[in-house]
Amino acid sequence: MSDGVDVEAAMKHKFAEDVFTYTTRDACLYALSVGASEHAPDEKDLPLVYEGAGDGFRVLPTMAVLFPTMGMSQIFNIPSLRFNPMMLLHGEQELRLTKPLPTSGAITCRPSLGGIYDKGKGALVLLDSDCFDESGEKVAFCRASLFIRGIGGFGGDRGPKPAAWAVPSRAPDKSDEYKTTENLALYYRLNGDTNPLHADPSMAAMGGFEKPILHGLCFFGIAGRVILRDFCDNDTTKFKAIKARFAKSVYPGETVITDMWAEEGGRVLFQCRVKERDVVVLTNGVAEVEGAAAALAARACERVAGERRGWARARDCACAAAGMRRVGAGGCSMTLRSGRSPLPRRCCDVRRRQRRPRACGGAGCPRTHRNADTYMEAAAPQSG
């Protein structure tokens, strides 16, 4: 076994609890640092950046990744896990929410090791943290997967096989572009991560970078913000979990494109890439949200409206997206007349891309529907 790694002893290490305290101002700062309300005034994002918003102030779910920040530093103090801090890489991040985050308060974090695995050239260390609010209720679980180079080969378990993940063959159901600012890393570090790699050009050069890089958790937060907006309508109660793998670095000033695919079971697959260099920087992304299937069905209807009036494609696209075997099956809210596409009342607007649509079934409309009101708003053209 490697002189620097004693798995059994390390797994028994007791971490000290850590308390993360924040105010509404801190929550606003975090939201702004991952691109919320980029084009102010933005009424949809206003509740994330303004404590006096009429719809009620709410905290971006991905802010929870900040809670264990101080507790993570304890990994450097485990006697049975010795390594050079410069050899540590943040490989993956996972976040699971059990309730919406408090708008302010003190969060108690209880760190622990979730596993230590031998990857040959290095070790994979899972650093977990359960996070509790002031009432003692659990609000979040965070897991940081850390790859430590140079301490592998100690004869340990290689760990479980990663879950299969691949980019779907179809075009993204939603895609978002966010042009980061040149000073975004300096802005994001005010959330608590003061690693000089993100601020000092000389430290960045020592790390092999041409200039300071953006925090990985910053573009992780950008992806989470976009998914919350596009698939949850910024309703934080619908955002349940998010996980992704860091693949490449992002330089402040570059454009981050988040591509998203809604899947059955409330999952949204996603990846982030840098437009200027055409490289994937965040991959293996999976978010769990409520209503992803409905959002996918709405976009399926929009595609059908723009492509074909036919029944067959509508059935394959919209009904499969909604998780039904066929149109008209039990639980299907789209009751159709024979030979008509399952499109909502505003389909004519979508198909013709008119700003002020004629009502479906009106003059010049080739389609007539029953029970179309259910999907009327869902099928309106999506922004962004």
Tell me about this structure:
With 384 residues, the protein is α+β, with helices and mostly antiparallel strands. The protein has helices at residues 7-11, 24-33, 46-49, 69-72, 184-188, 201-206, 216-232, 292-307, 311-321, 347-352; strands spanning 18-22, 88-97, 105-118, 122-132, 138-149, 174-179, 239-246, 255-263, 267-274, 279-289. The longest helix has 17 residues, at 216-232. Residues 307-384 have low confidence and may be disordered.
Q: What key phrases describe this protein's structure?
A:
single chain; 384 residues; alpha+beta; ten-stranded antiparallel sheet; 10 helices; 10 strands; 22% helix; disordered C terminus
In short:
This protein has helices spanning 7-11, 24-33, 46-49, 69-72, 184-188, 201-206, 216-232, 292-307, 311-321, 347-352, and strands at residues 18-22, 88-97, 105-118, 122-132, 138-149, 174-179, 239-246, 255-263, 267-274, 279-289.
> Which quaternary structure do these chains form?
single chain
Major pleated sheet: 10 strands, antiparallel
Give start-end ranges of low-pLDDT stretches. 307-384
Order of helices and strands: HEHHHEEEEEHHHEEEEHHH
Rounded average pLDDT:
82
Radius of gyration: 23 Å
| Percent helix range | 10-25%
Shape: globular
How many DSSP H or I helices? 10
Strand order of the largest sheet: 1-3-4-5-2-7-10-9-8-6
Share of β-strand residues: 15-25%
Structural class: alpha+beta
CA-to-CA gap between the ends? Answer: 53 Å
Beta strands, count: 10
